[in-house]
Batch of 3 targets.
Target 1
Amino acid sequence: MELVVSLEFSGGAELLFDKVKNHEVSLPARANGPWTIKHLLVWIKDNLLKERPELFVQGDTVRPGILVLINDADWELMGELNYELKSKDRIVFISTLHGG
């Protein structure tokens, strides 16, 4: 069963995604378990990210300086990379990094 989630990028993070802030995405069913934020980050990098992946991901997580909210709650309260996505979840990525 495919999973539909809303993704939002702001605080400058949208610049890495062709300046598009909001994305509603349909994720295909996974054969080996549920979708997690960790899987979602790989999917975002492979399917949505347009430039400079090093400004969004570091290793298998988001780069320090990017705040992640899951349904308006800090992802640290939700299990971070291990959070299991549910249909209609809203995941927000806010960059707190600003060049000068």
Target 2
Amino acid sequence: MQSDDGSRSNEMEKATAFIIVEIIEYVPGSVVIKTILKKRTGNVSAVSVDSDGELEEKASPFDIFIQIIEGRTEIFIEDDVLHLETGQSVIIPAHSRNSFKAGHRFKMISTVIKSGYEEVS
């Protein structure tokens, strides 16, 4: 894919329809991340996690919106555990420790907004 200035981009092609669960495949024992949009102010990614896959604990300085688009998973946010399945979403608060445990294959959309925090009181 090329951007308007002719450089290569990892983003999806704009103004082209796609089915989100079909743009990313499962890879045995792996986590796969495909960038949908990536800007200085945030990004949107599609993520697939195989049944033995795990997203290790981390914390982001920004809120993260997660939507499960296929399958189910356990999301650990600080000391809480949420069981999410297809169609369910959660917002992981900024600076919160979080991790994912598959147990089953799943796909999700992860959206991070990096601007606007200074405007919120």
Target 3
Amino acid sequence: MRLFAAIAIFTATQFCAVSARAGDTAELNILGFTANGGVFAFEEFGIQDGSGFPYANRFYIDTATDSFLPGTPIRVRIDDETASLDDARAKARSQGEAIASQAELKANRGLTAGASPVTELSGDPHRMAVNPRAVFPVIDTPLELRLEEFALEGPELCESFGTVMGYRLIRVGVAPGEAASLLHEDTSIPSSRNCPLGYRIGAVQTFFPEGGDPVFAALIAVRSVGFEGPDHRWIAVPGKL
């Protein structure tokens, strides 16, 4: 009995040690679009590994130019372990009201046409094909995205952590003879990605604005070097349907 008890205690201790050294995975919250579909917004939030500080980041993207709106992204971290995630999120939300109101985004959230969280093991992390609307029989052209990873020179500080990866996102033609189109291809690694090691398609959000052109946003999870293990953060690529 003592032997079994000792093994159990050792196993539990090792499990706790591994758990304590895990990287942090930011939770994704899709905020929505502005009424005309011109802006897409999303939020990521979590507890930073190593420090234990809560953070919340908000991104507001021009869907026509694939660029951040002035004054964004909004990045909040409260350097206090006793602060809550709600505190960080509320602060980021307050700052975001000057960019696009929460009420407008919520009223035009669109449809999460496809989703594959970073915990998904059975799906293809580099491919997602969706019907843009929940209309059956289907009346819309399907949207299919493919993500390709490739080695790319990164900041010098990343050299000891492994191969730094960039990505390209391709929209696959669905009609016979239709050519694929390139939505994004990295030419350099922004410092905000913090030594990226890999990517996966996490979700596709679609929106059909009244009287406007339908749009979508592909949410991509970035696996990068963290303080205690791999971290996951989010980026988005918009496009027109």
